[in-house]
Amino acid sequence: MRFRLVGALCGVLLLSACATARGPEETPAPGPRPAPTPSQPAPAPTLDVSSLTGWAQADHAEAFAAYRATCGVARAPAEAEVCRRARSHPRLEVNEARAFFETNFRLQPVPGEGVLTAYYAPEYTARRSPDAEYSAPVRPKPANHAALYGRADRAMIEATPPTEVLAWMRPEELFFLQIQGSGVLTFADGERVKVLFAAHNDLPFSGIANPMRDRGLLAANNTSGEAIRAWLAAHRGPEAEAIMRLNRRYVWFRLEADDGLHPIGAAGVPLPPDHAIAVDLSQHRVGELFWIDASAPILTGAFPVYRRLVVALDTGGAIKGQVRADLYLGSGPEAGVEAGRVRHTLRMVRLVPRVGPDPAP
User: What is the pTM of this model?
Assistant: First the structure.
Protein backbone atom coordinates (compact mmCIF):
# COMPACT_ATOMS: atom_id res chain seq x y z
CA MET A 1 0.00 0.00 0.00
CA ARG A 2 2.75 2.12 0.21
CA PHE A 3 7.33 3.23 -3.05
CA ARG A 4 8.93 5.96 -7.13
CA LEU A 5 13.12 9.30 -11.17
CA VAL A 6 15.93 12.45 -13.97
CA GLY A 7 15.69 15.67 -16.01
CA ALA A 8 18.00 18.36 -17.39
CA LEU A 9 18.96 21.29 -15.16
CA CYS A 10 20.17 23.37 -18.08
CA GLY A 11 16.63 23.61 -19.43
CA VAL A 12 15.39 25.12 -16.18
CA LEU A 13 18.32 27.49 -16.00
CA LEU A 14 17.66 28.68 -19.55
CA LEU A 15 13.98 29.22 -18.86
CA SER A 16 14.83 31.07 -15.69
CA ALA A 17 17.23 33.35 -17.55
CA CYS A 18 14.61 34.12 -20.20
CA ALA A 19 12.03 34.91 -17.58
CA THR A 20 14.21 37.32 -15.60
CA ALA A 21 16.23 39.11 -18.31
CA ARG A 22 14.88 42.54 -19.26
CA GLY A 23 15.27 44.62 -22.42
CA PRO A 24 15.67 48.43 -22.24
CA GLU A 25 11.89 48.93 -22.64
CA GLU A 26 11.27 46.74 -19.59
CA THR A 27 13.47 48.68 -17.18
CA PRO A 28 11.32 49.90 -14.27
CA ALA A 29 10.83 53.62 -13.99
CA PRO A 30 12.59 55.35 -11.09
CA GLY A 31 10.67 55.72 -7.89
CA PRO A 32 9.27 53.51 -5.17
CA ARG A 33 8.37 49.99 -6.14
CA PRO A 34 4.70 49.03 -5.82
CA ALA A 35 3.73 46.81 -2.93
CA PRO A 36 2.99 43.19 -3.80
CA THR A 37 -0.65 42.51 -4.59
CA PRO A 38 -2.56 39.89 -2.61
CA SER A 39 -2.25 37.56 -5.58
CA GLN A 40 1.54 37.52 -5.15
CA PRO A 41 2.26 35.16 -2.22
CA ALA A 42 5.21 35.97 -0.01
CA PRO A 43 8.18 33.64 -0.42
CA ALA A 44 8.27 30.77 2.05
CA PRO A 45 10.63 31.42 4.99
CA THR A 46 13.88 29.54 5.14
CA LEU A 47 15.80 28.20 8.12
CA ASP A 48 19.42 27.62 8.99
CA VAL A 49 20.49 24.16 10.13
CA SER A 50 21.52 25.65 13.46
CA SER A 51 17.79 26.01 14.19
CA LEU A 52 17.17 22.27 13.81
CA THR A 53 17.30 20.47 17.15
CA GLY A 54 19.26 17.25 16.75
CA TRP A 55 20.80 18.08 13.36
CA ALA A 56 24.38 17.91 14.63
CA GLN A 57 23.77 14.52 16.28
CA ALA A 58 21.94 12.86 13.36
CA ASP A 59 23.43 9.95 11.42
CA HIS A 60 23.92 11.83 8.16
CA ALA A 61 25.95 9.00 6.61
CA GLU A 62 23.00 6.62 6.94
CA ALA A 63 20.62 9.31 5.68
CA PHE A 64 22.89 9.99 2.70
CA ALA A 65 22.97 6.29 1.81
CA ALA A 66 19.16 6.18 1.89
CA TYR A 67 18.86 9.38 -0.14
CA ARG A 68 21.44 8.28 -2.73
CA ALA A 69 19.69 4.93 -3.21
CA THR A 70 16.25 6.45 -3.78
CA CYS A 71 16.70 10.00 -5.11
CA GLY A 72 16.21 8.85 -8.70
CA VAL A 73 12.45 8.80 -8.17
CA ALA A 74 12.32 12.62 -7.99
CA ARG A 75 11.15 14.25 -11.23
CA ALA A 76 12.00 17.95 -10.89
CA PRO A 77 15.17 19.00 -12.76
CA ALA A 78 16.77 20.57 -9.66
CA GLU A 79 16.12 17.40 -7.68
CA ALA A 80 17.61 15.31 -10.47
CA GLU A 81 20.74 17.47 -10.51
CA VAL A 82 21.33 17.09 -6.77
CA CYS A 83 20.69 13.36 -7.13
CA ARG A 84 23.39 13.24 -9.83
CA ARG A 85 25.79 14.94 -7.43
CA ALA A 86 24.94 12.46 -4.69
CA ARG A 87 25.49 9.49 -6.96
CA SER A 88 28.91 10.78 -7.97
CA HIS A 89 30.01 9.75 -4.45
CA PRO A 90 30.08 6.00 -3.68
CA ARG A 91 29.62 6.74 0.02
CA LEU A 92 30.23 9.54 2.50
CA GLU A 93 31.19 9.56 6.15
CA VAL A 94 29.07 11.42 8.68
CA ASN A 95 30.72 14.84 8.39
CA GLU A 96 31.01 14.63 4.60
CA ALA A 97 27.37 13.65 4.31
CA ARG A 98 26.31 16.50 6.60
CA ALA A 99 28.30 18.95 4.44
CA PHE A 100 26.62 17.53 1.32
CA PHE A 101 23.14 18.20 2.66
CA GLU A 102 24.03 21.65 3.97
CA THR A 103 25.65 22.64 0.66
CA ASN A 104 23.06 21.24 -1.74
CA PHE A 105 19.81 22.09 0.03
CA ARG A 106 18.11 25.01 1.68
CA LEU A 107 15.54 24.56 4.43
CA GLN A 108 11.87 25.43 4.09
CA PRO A 109 9.61 24.84 7.11
CA VAL A 110 6.27 23.18 6.55
CA PRO A 111 3.84 25.30 8.60
CA GLY A 112 1.97 23.89 11.56
CA GLU A 113 2.13 20.71 13.60
CA GLY A 114 0.78 17.28 12.85
CA VAL A 115 1.18 13.62 13.70
CA LEU A 116 3.92 11.05 13.14
CA THR A 117 3.01 7.38 13.14
CA ALA A 118 5.09 4.42 11.95
CA TYR A 119 4.72 1.21 10.01
CA TYR A 120 6.76 -1.88 9.24
CA ALA A 121 6.87 -5.04 7.14
CA PRO A 122 5.43 -7.77 9.33
CA GLU A 123 6.58 -11.37 9.29
CA TYR A 124 3.90 -13.90 10.13
CA THR A 125 3.46 -17.64 10.12
CA ALA A 126 0.81 -19.10 7.82
CA ARG A 127 -0.72 -22.40 6.80
CA ARG A 128 -1.80 -23.86 3.48
CA SER A 129 -4.91 -25.38 5.06
CA PRO A 130 -7.18 -23.88 7.73
CA ASP A 131 -7.39 -25.01 11.33
CA ALA A 132 -8.83 -23.61 14.54
CA GLU A 133 -5.95 -21.13 14.94
CA TYR A 134 -5.21 -20.28 11.30
CA SER A 135 -8.77 -19.61 10.20
CA ALA A 136 -8.54 -16.35 8.22
CA PRO A 137 -8.13 -16.67 4.43
CA VAL A 138 -5.65 -14.46 2.59
CA ARG A 139 -7.69 -13.68 -0.50
CA PRO A 140 -6.44 -12.67 -3.95
CA LYS A 141 -8.03 -9.79 -5.84
CA PRO A 142 -11.42 -11.15 -6.97
CA ALA A 143 -12.52 -11.27 -10.59
CA ASN A 144 -15.57 -9.15 -9.68
CA HIS A 145 -13.47 -6.52 -7.91
CA ALA A 146 -14.98 -3.68 -9.97
CA ALA A 147 -18.48 -4.69 -8.90
CA LEU A 148 -17.43 -4.81 -5.25
CA TYR A 149 -15.49 -1.53 -5.39
CA GLY A 150 -16.87 0.86 -2.80
CA ARG A 151 -19.89 -1.34 -2.05
CA ALA A 152 -18.86 -4.39 -0.07
CA ASP A 153 -17.33 -3.71 3.35
CA ARG A 154 -15.18 -5.98 5.51
CA ALA A 155 -18.14 -7.71 7.10
CA MET A 156 -19.79 -8.50 3.75
CA ILE A 157 -16.55 -9.80 2.21
CA GLU A 158 -15.65 -11.94 5.20
CA ALA A 159 -19.16 -13.43 5.22
CA THR A 160 -18.67 -14.65 1.63
CA PRO A 161 -16.88 -18.02 1.35
CA PRO A 162 -13.63 -17.58 -0.63
CA THR A 163 -13.33 -19.18 -4.06
CA GLU A 164 -9.52 -19.02 -3.90
CA VAL A 165 -7.16 -18.76 -0.93
CA LEU A 166 -3.46 -17.84 -1.01
CA ALA A 167 -2.77 -18.82 2.61
CA TRP A 168 -4.45 -19.08 6.01
CA MET A 169 -3.49 -16.80 8.88
CA ARG A 170 -4.50 -15.96 12.42
CA PRO A 171 -7.39 -13.44 12.07
CA GLU A 172 -5.76 -10.64 14.06
CA GLU A 173 -2.50 -11.00 12.13
CA LEU A 174 -4.30 -10.82 8.79
CA PHE A 175 -6.02 -7.67 10.05
CA PHE A 176 -2.66 -6.07 10.85
CA LEU A 177 -1.21 -7.26 7.54
CA GLN A 178 -4.04 -5.43 5.79
CA ILE A 179 -3.16 -2.25 7.68
CA GLN A 180 0.57 -2.51 6.89
CA GLY A 181 -0.06 -3.47 3.25
CA SER A 182 2.66 -6.07 2.77
CA GLY A 183 4.83 -8.53 4.63
CA VAL A 184 6.40 -11.97 4.63
CA LEU A 185 4.68 -15.28 5.35
CA THR A 186 6.48 -18.39 6.57
CA PHE A 187 4.76 -21.75 6.10
CA ALA A 188 5.18 -24.77 8.35
CA ASP A 189 7.71 -26.34 5.96
CA GLY A 190 9.93 -23.24 6.17
CA GLU A 191 9.03 -21.73 2.79
CA ARG A 192 8.93 -17.91 2.88
CA VAL A 193 6.92 -15.79 0.47
CA LYS A 194 6.21 -12.10 0.14
CA VAL A 195 2.56 -11.17 0.51
CA LEU A 196 1.91 -7.91 -1.34
CA PHE A 197 -0.97 -5.48 -1.71
CA ALA A 198 -3.18 -6.23 -4.73
CA ALA A 199 -6.33 -4.10 -4.26
CA HIS A 200 -8.77 -2.73 -1.72
CA ASN A 201 -12.50 -2.09 -1.62
CA ASP A 202 -12.14 1.73 -1.70
CA LEU A 203 -13.84 2.32 1.63
CA PRO A 204 -12.13 4.67 4.10
CA PHE A 205 -9.72 3.28 6.65
CA SER A 206 -10.96 3.54 10.23
CA GLY A 207 -8.63 2.92 13.13
CA ILE A 208 -9.88 0.76 15.98
CA ALA A 209 -7.67 2.15 18.78
CA ASN A 210 -10.02 4.96 19.77
CA PRO A 211 -13.18 2.80 19.74
CA MET A 212 -11.41 0.22 21.87
CA ARG A 213 -10.35 2.94 24.32
CA ASP A 214 -13.84 4.47 24.37
CA ARG A 215 -15.38 1.06 25.11
CA GLY A 216 -12.99 0.49 27.99
CA LEU A 217 -11.23 -2.39 26.26
CA LEU A 218 -7.83 -0.65 26.44
CA ALA A 219 -6.36 2.06 28.65
CA ALA A 220 -6.06 5.52 27.08
CA ASN A 221 -2.25 5.40 27.21
CA ASN A 222 -2.01 1.80 26.03
CA THR A 223 -3.61 1.70 22.59
CA SER A 224 -0.41 0.60 20.84
CA GLY A 225 -0.44 -1.93 18.04
CA GLU A 226 1.04 -4.45 20.46
CA ALA A 227 -1.81 -3.96 22.95
CA ILE A 228 -4.48 -4.09 20.25
CA ARG A 229 -3.07 -7.28 18.75
CA ALA A 230 -2.89 -8.95 22.17
CA TRP A 231 -6.53 -8.09 22.92
CA LEU A 232 -7.73 -9.36 19.54
CA ALA A 233 -5.80 -12.63 20.00
CA ALA A 234 -7.20 -13.11 23.52
CA HIS A 235 -10.76 -12.53 22.26
CA ARG A 236 -10.46 -14.37 18.96
CA GLY A 237 -13.92 -15.13 17.58
CA PRO A 238 -17.10 -12.99 17.52
CA GLU A 239 -15.78 -10.35 19.98
CA ALA A 240 -12.61 -9.66 18.02
CA GLU A 241 -14.44 -9.87 14.68
CA ALA A 242 -16.89 -7.19 15.79
CA ILE A 243 -14.04 -4.85 16.64
CA MET A 244 -12.07 -5.51 13.46
CA ARG A 245 -15.17 -4.91 11.35
CA LEU A 246 -15.30 -1.33 12.61
CA ASN A 247 -12.62 -0.82 9.96
CA ARG A 248 -14.71 -1.35 6.82
CA ARG A 249 -11.71 -1.25 4.46
CA TYR A 250 -10.63 -4.64 3.14
CA VAL A 251 -7.37 -5.49 1.34
CA TRP A 252 -6.65 -8.30 -1.13
CA PHE A 253 -3.14 -9.65 -1.73
CA ARG A 254 -0.82 -11.44 -4.12
CA LEU A 255 2.18 -13.66 -3.41
CA GLU A 256 5.73 -13.41 -4.75
CA ALA A 257 8.97 -15.23 -4.03
CA ASP A 258 10.83 -13.72 -1.07
CA ASP A 259 13.82 -11.77 -2.45
CA GLY A 260 14.99 -10.60 0.97
CA LEU A 261 14.50 -6.91 0.07
CA HIS A 262 12.40 -4.39 1.94
CA PRO A 263 8.94 -3.74 0.50
CA ILE A 264 8.33 -1.53 -2.51
CA GLY A 265 6.39 1.65 -1.74
CA ALA A 266 4.40 4.00 -3.94
CA ALA A 267 7.61 5.43 -5.48
CA GLY A 268 8.57 2.01 -6.88
CA VAL A 269 11.79 1.47 -4.92
CA PRO A 270 12.59 -0.56 -1.77
CA LEU A 271 11.96 1.42 1.39
CA PRO A 272 15.14 2.20 3.41
CA PRO A 273 14.35 1.53 7.09
CA ASP A 274 14.30 4.57 9.39
CA HIS A 275 14.66 7.03 6.49
CA ALA A 276 11.50 6.58 4.41
CA ILE A 277 8.08 8.07 5.08
CA ALA A 278 4.63 7.74 3.65
CA VAL A 279 3.01 11.13 2.99
CA ASP A 280 -0.16 12.59 1.53
CA LEU A 281 0.69 12.79 -2.18
CA SER A 282 -1.84 15.56 -2.68
CA GLN A 283 0.44 17.70 -0.47
CA HIS A 284 3.94 16.43 -1.31
CA ARG A 285 5.84 14.68 -4.13
CA VAL A 286 7.65 11.37 -4.04
CA GLY A 287 11.39 11.85 -3.69
CA GLU A 288 11.19 15.00 -1.56
CA LEU A 289 13.61 15.15 1.36
CA PHE A 290 12.40 16.20 4.81
CA TRP A 291 13.76 16.74 8.29
CA ILE A 292 11.26 15.41 10.80
CA ASP A 293 11.17 16.42 14.45
CA ALA A 294 8.64 14.38 16.42
CA SER A 295 8.22 14.46 20.18
CA ALA A 296 5.57 14.33 22.94
CA PRO A 297 4.50 10.68 22.48
CA ILE A 298 1.15 9.68 23.92
CA LEU A 299 1.66 5.91 24.08
CA THR A 300 3.38 3.96 26.86
CA GLY A 301 6.85 2.67 26.04
CA ALA A 302 7.43 4.91 23.02
CA PHE A 303 10.81 6.41 22.18
CA PRO A 304 10.72 10.08 23.26
CA VAL A 305 11.81 11.67 19.97
CA TYR A 306 12.33 10.93 16.28
CA ARG A 307 14.64 13.44 14.58
CA ARG A 308 16.17 12.53 11.23
CA LEU A 309 16.30 13.07 7.48
CA VAL A 310 13.72 11.07 5.55
CA VAL A 311 12.64 10.67 1.92
CA ALA A 312 8.98 10.70 0.86
CA LEU A 313 8.64 7.32 -0.85
CA ASP A 314 5.19 6.04 0.01
CA THR A 315 1.59 6.87 0.81
CA GLY A 316 -1.29 5.32 2.70
CA GLY A 317 -5.03 5.56 3.16
CA ALA A 318 -4.76 7.06 6.65
CA ILE A 319 -2.02 9.57 5.77
CA LYS A 320 -3.86 12.85 5.15
CA GLY A 321 -2.65 16.42 5.51
CA GLN A 322 0.46 18.52 4.98
CA VAL A 323 2.12 17.78 8.33
CA ARG A 324 1.44 14.05 8.50
CA ALA A 325 3.94 11.23 8.02
CA ASP A 326 4.22 7.50 8.54
CA LEU A 327 7.80 6.38 9.22
CA TYR A 328 8.96 3.00 7.86
CA LEU A 329 10.91 1.21 10.58
CA GLY A 330 11.90 -2.03 8.86
CA SER A 331 10.68 -5.59 9.17
CA GLY A 332 10.05 -8.19 11.83
CA PRO A 333 8.65 -8.30 15.36
CA GLU A 334 11.00 -5.73 16.92
CA ALA A 335 10.13 -3.14 14.27
CA GLY A 336 6.47 -4.00 14.77
CA VAL A 337 6.58 -3.34 18.51
CA GLU A 338 8.29 0.02 17.97
CA ALA A 339 5.98 1.03 15.13
CA GLY A 340 2.91 0.30 17.21
CA ARG A 341 4.01 2.82 19.86
CA VAL A 342 4.66 5.78 17.57
CA ARG A 343 2.14 8.58 17.81
CA HIS A 344 4.11 11.78 18.25
CA THR A 345 3.58 15.49 17.63
CA LEU A 346 5.30 16.21 14.32
CA ARG A 347 7.07 19.19 12.78
CA MET A 348 8.49 18.96 9.26
CA VAL A 349 11.09 20.92 7.30
CA ARG A 350 11.46 20.41 3.55
CA LEU A 351 14.96 20.36 2.06
CA VAL A 352 14.76 22.23 -1.23
CA PRO A 353 17.55 21.65 -3.78
CA ARG A 354 19.80 24.57 -4.52
CA VAL A 355 19.94 25.27 -8.25
CA GLY A 356 23.03 26.57 -10.01
CA PRO A 357 26.55 25.32 -10.74
CA ASP A 358 27.94 22.41 -8.76
CA PRO A 359 28.93 23.66 -5.30
CA ALA A 360 32.52 23.21 -4.26
CA PRO A 361 33.09 19.73 -2.79
Answer: 0.77
